[in-house]
Structure formats: structure tokens, C-alpha cells
Amino acid sequence: MKEQINLIKILEEKGFTYKTSDGIYFDTSKLKNYGRLAGQLLSEKVEGARIEKNPEKKNSVDFALWKFSQPGVKRQMEWESPWGVGFPGWHIECSAMSEKYLGSPFDIHTGGEDHISVHHPNEMAQTEAARGHNLANWWLHNAFLLVDGGKMSKSLGNTYSLDDLRKRGFDPLDYRYFVLGAHYRVPQNFTWQALRAARQARLNLINEIWQINGKDGQINADYVKKFQEKINDDLDMPGALSVVWQIVKDGAVPAGDRLATVLKMDEVLGLRLSDILKIEVPDPVKRILKERKQARLEKNYELSDKLREELKQYGFGVKDEPDGQKLILQF
Known about the structure:
Strand order of the largest sheet: 1-2-3-4
Largest sheet: 4 strands, antiparallel
CATH architecture of the largest domain: 3-Layer(aba) Sandwich
CATH superfamily of the largest domain: HUPs
Oligomer: single chain
Distance between the termini: 48 Å
Number of helices: 11
CATH topology of the largest domain: Rossmann fold
């Protein structure tokens, strides 16, 4: 709170504020290029689109820096200030907190695309007016996550937590893989079917990596360059993920190098692929595989299928290929 009040005092000293009956306001007409983030001129802004109109404001888009508590009404959250008892406006806390914890200016400011028109332009205005420089060097806005093609809303009962995903048998990393599959500026539609597809794709990747039999490899510089080019191209995570799949499948690259390179890439992706290397085949699984191999030689397919099901209890599965059975991970 101290930092917010101090920032408002600086704006006041520099002539960017004025007082009304209900608070201290920022005068947007005093700041050149106000609203440029949204690509709108000050004259194009419309008052009342988000909040109730205030006839005392000098400009329709001026916003509150400090609001006065109503006389005789005790709020749960209110503080003393040079302007009287009240509370900060919606935007000032973000400018104050980011400056305190990230410095000013800081590199990257993120947020939802719904903040492009109001909240983020006002954040920018406060810091630029008070400090004389940008709040952040880069602004990245993500598109909305839809649910079954519609808006996510508590009233609709379609908001989900990671605990909800776990209850349905999903790992939080399945959701992470799902999110990596779309660019942050493109709306993404969450469905349980889409999450199942992401889970299967992640499991396929895990099995590909688990089957790589290589140690002491070197990081492949060419593939790392491709990966970084995707990352540096406006965070093209789907493209970066495709590079991971390319090297996993590239038999021309030594196994150890493929493994080392993928693990290096995963430092960015955060899929915890290194955990796969810790998975060992327990003795009961080895026994089941041996029994199943014999059952198939004897064409005892009923027993073979039964043993396949037993493997699932240990988190494993099996694929029958022309050269024999292949053990796979199956979570």
C-alpha cells in the first residue's frame, strides 16, 4: 500500500491528477499517446463500456487512482492516505507491485487479451507519467481458453482445476502438453476428448524417448538451433514441439545425442522427460513378459491377453511387432 500511495503522490506532483467528489483521478489528456497499446486514439475511447459513467471526470477515460470511502460506511479494506480514508483504484497496484518486485522498466508483461483496451493502457500511463519511461519493453497477450466451444464460467459449471483432471485420471502434464499444442495468441478449445488426445501424444513421446538406448550423448547444435528459432518466433511452442518429434524420429542422429538434445529442449517445455530415465522394469514385469512370450509361441492367445492385462497393474503395456513383443509405458 505504501508503494501505491507514493506512486500516486508522484503523479500528483507532476500534474497528472485531479480530485472529484469520489476520488483522485488520472488525467489521460496530459499523457501523449495514451491508449496506443489498444491502437485507439483518446477521442475514440467510449466511457461506460466497463464502469458506470462519472460526470465529474474531465475526460471520459480518466481512471481512479484513489477512491474515497463513503462517509459513515466502514469498508473491509480501506486505508489512511494524504487524500483521506479510501482504497486504491484498480490499476495502480499493478504499476506499484511490478516496480517493487521486477524493477522499472522490466522486460516482458503478459496478460489476457481482454486487458488490451483498458487495464494495460492504464498501467502503462501511470508508470510513464510517474517515471518518464516504459513500464515494460514487451507486451504479450494470450487469447482465451474456451470450454466445449464456449466461455468458461463458474455459473456454467465448466471451470476445472488440476484436481478435477486428476480425478478423471489425467496427469497435470497432459494439460501442459495440450497447452503447448497451440500458439498463445490463438484461442484454444478445451474438451475432454482434446485432453485425451494430448495425453496419448505425451505418452507416445514418453515411449519414444524411453526406447532410445543411448548414453553419454552430445547435444545436437543443429536441432537446438531449430528449436530456439521456433521459441524466438513469438513463442511458437507448437513449432518447438514439432522439432522435438523430429529429432526423436531422426535415426541419422546417434541415440545418445538424440536423448541429450531432447532433455535439453525439455528445460524449456517442462514435460519432465528426464523422469522417464529413472523408470526401471521390475522383476514381476520381466516374468510376465517371459510367460507371455511363451504363451504366444504356443498360440495360447487367451493367456497372452490375460498377461497383457496384468502388465497394466505395473504401469506397463506391450505391443506385438514383427520382431517380437515390445514393452511400453502405459500410465
